[in-house]
Amino acid sequence: MSLKQDEIIKISNLAKLNISDEQMGEYENRLTSILDLAEQMGSIDTTGVEPMSHPLHMTQRLREDVVTEGSQREHFQEHAPSVEKGLFVVPKVIE
Amino acid sequence: MHNKTIAQLSAGLAAGEFSSTELTQHFLQRVKDNQDLNAFITVTEPQALAAAQAADARRGAGNADVLTGIPFAHKDIFCTNGIRTSSGSKMLDNFIAPYDATVVEKMAASGIVSLGKLNMDEFAMGSSNETSFYGGVKNPWDTQRVPGGSSGGSAAAVAARLVPGATGTDTGGSIRQPASFCGISGLKPTYGSVSRYGMIAFASSMDQAGPMARTAEDCGLLLQSMAGFDERDSTSSERDVPNYNGELNNSLKGLKIGLPKEYFGEGLSADVAKVVEAAIEEYKKLGAEIVEVSLPNSHLSVPAYYVVAPAECSSNLSRMDGVRFGHRCEDPKNLEDLYRRSRSEGFGDEVKRRIMIGAYVLSAGYYDAYYIKAQQVRHLISEDFKKVFEKVDVIMGPTAPEAAFKTGEKSGDQTSMYLSDIYTIAVNLAGLPGMSIPAGFADSKMPVGLQLIGNYFAEPKLLNAAHQFQQVTDWHNKAPEGFE
Questions:
Q1: Predicted ipTM of the assembly
Q2: What is the CA B92 to chain-centroid distance, rounded?
Q3: CATH topology of domain B6-255+397-477
């Protein structure tokens, strides 16, 4: 299976990455070769096999809904790119 | 001093032959004298000297633990409070972690002295250390060659005697393959043994931290301080931590070793095969029984991995968005531009490729064909191991199909790079413990590792088998020329 340019653009939109026109050819080739590798899985029949998402077949552990940590907002924001009045600043979203 | 193992250094500290401050100064000097290897991203000399002083005081007060005062270093994937934690990426070049990973916290509590943070492939995605934003690490056995990856800085630093031990992480072979390439010992524990809290995530269902050192005994000492249940890691194992070195001296008489025929077929270099076969002969002499076994789906482990790992990484790395921490582009025009340019500038090529593959295999219309299929194959691979472990105690084979390759040799061809983890990846998919120990040298004079795979939570057995081999061989004592 080979990935076409429009699919690469669609994936880059999902992944929030910019792919320049010059890089496009390389992405087509390299991503296609990874998918070719993945397609070797088609050589076996997995009908009825339960998908395994966790190696130890564990169930998610639950805990009491209690506060375990205090606020560390100032500490966590010390190295943030842009902060004002305790908020993370981003470009204007709503005009 | 630098040729001593952690166990020997610990005995020396206990006997008062040297202080932790002396040891720390000695190893810091070696780090400085060997900067060309590029093994460290950050050296934390003041913190190391302060920790050494505290360790000496603790020993003086009679509360020393076995690791108290031992110099070592962390892979730069573990968050260290107040110290840059880059994960080998431009994205986190400016990231000063605001907390310690559980592994960092636990090891610091043992009194071990960290000298700094070790180089690695970007976000642990690579098998040669060449994807690091900080440049590749040189293999001390031949500086034209790669140290393996992703824990390449850890492996090179231990092999060059810059530190007697280090932490690594292994998602598809990232402890074992560099251990093999650099001629040291490395252990990837059973999934869930060591907390993932504060370890920058790559593929969460496979990521596992473990020790890297020159001997199996040292790996056991380090693992003892790393492992244990952690409520902050949702997949942490609640089992009691065993005494990892408790079985070291057991006899191997009657130990059943399985050799998977798939690990000795096409793709394995003849010189590596020869070394592994000679190692198996040693095990026979130690009284082990050799059984041929089969892992029939092992050829599908690399294909399944390159669906599961990218899928998980595309999700995990979505947090790198330029908003709360890490790299942010200059003058973003709007929020979309901020996300896209920050990510495009901050991530390197291999990371971008894997995020793209992950986004693709998880997207509508492809999810069943790729992601569910890969999880089904993963199940079959783990069943293969289950069947084999009904018959044998330990599985052995090569760690990697060849010894360390030259820098740049595979960087243009990622599929051949991916295949360098062909014997290690299945272990991660199944969540089993695996180890690599030095077993000899290839025609290129580069080290070759023997891989040992154990059943779930059978680390004491693996360490026993590795330690007994190291009692009758001295591959693990060999030092690269110029680093003795």
A1: 0.95
A2: 20
A3: Amidase signature (AS) enzymes (3.90.1300)
